[in-house]
Amino acid sequence: MSRIGRLPIIVPAGVQVQVNGLEVHVKGPKGEMKQEFSPVITIKLDGTQVHVTRSSEEPRVRALHGTTRALISNMVTGVSTGFTRVLTVEGVGYRPEMSGANLVLHVGYSHPVTVTPPEGISFAVDAKARQIKILGYDKEEVGQVAADVREIRPPEPYKGKGIRYQEEKIRRKAGKAGKGKGKK
User: Fold this and answer.
1) How does pLDDT run along the chain (184 residues), one tens digit per residue?
2) Based on C-alpha coordinates, what's the Rg of the chain?
3) Strand partners, 164
4) Per DSSP, what are the bridge partners of residue 102?
5) Phi first, then psi: what are they for 164, rounded to 5°?
6) Count of alpha carbons within 13 angstroms of residue 27, beta-carbon side
7) Whole-angstrom Cα distance, residue 172 to residue 129?
8) Backbone phi, then psi, for 53, in 5-degree steps?
9) What is the spatial distance between Cα 33 and Cα 106, in angstroms, rounded to a whole number?
10) What residue ranges define each of the domains in the chain, with the CATH number in brackets?
11) Rounded CA gap, 145 and 47, in Å?
């Protein structure tokens, strides 16, 4: 049995889960999500717990077992508490700021770059710490928006300037080796 797949998903108070065959619909204070899953996986709602079981021991079905359970768990966590991804902006003159709901980045280009959040995503900026928080209830969407913002100016290995994840370590490279005096 999958160690992750066999764990029950505890549904917190204030979250409603409906299982309609292959479709799971989760509704909570932060939003609502629904997703359809593979027919080889059985999903049962038992009071305040959701149980995920598989039909066979094939490798493909075993992989889907843990994945399905993790996806449903992320849906429940997302609509109850939400997800956050933190980005750090480093570099002289580099700064993030908010303009209404939009994120405006000054990251070394000749113009500021404006990022409009998709539905269900919001930005928060700490200007002193040069941090951008990406908040939302869909873990996949939060991660994708964070990757898109990071892609605007990825960190470079020589000076470390750019936008990076808070927990990301940038491997620094040495610059050009100084050459001796050449022929005159």
Assistant:
1) 568 888 999 999 999 999 998 899 999 999 999 999 999 999 999 989 999 999 888 999 998 999 999 999 999 999 999 999 999 999 999 999 999 999 999 999 999 999 999 999 999 999 899 999 999 999 999 999 999 999 999 999 999 899 999 999 989 998 887 665 655 5
2) 22
3) 88
4) 99
5) -135, 160
6) 4
7) 22
8) -130, 160
9) 34
10) 9-80 (3.90.930.12), 83-165 (3.90.930.12)
11) 35
CA angle 164, 72, 81 (to 5 degrees): 55
Q: List, in order, residues 6 or more apart from 155 with CB less than 8 Å away.
A: 90, 161, 162, 163, 164, 168, 170
* The residue type at 38: S
Rounded Cα–Cα distance for residues 178 and 87 (Å): 34
**Would you list the DSSP string of 22-49?**
TEEEEE-SS-EEEEE--TTEEEEEETTE
Distance of alpha carbon 16 from alpha carbon 39, whole angstroms = 22
Nearby residues of 161 by Cβ (< 8 Å), 6 or more positions away:
90, 91, 92, 94, 108, 153, 155
d(CA 131, CA 167): 12
| Separation between Cα atoms, residue 66 and residue 54, nearest integer Å | 10
Q: Are 38 and 32 in contact (CB under 8 A)?
A: no
Element (H or E) spanning 103, and its range? Answer: strand 102-106
Task: Name residues whose C-beta falls within 8 Å of residue 127's C-beta, 6 or more positions apart in sequence.
Answer: 95, 96, 97
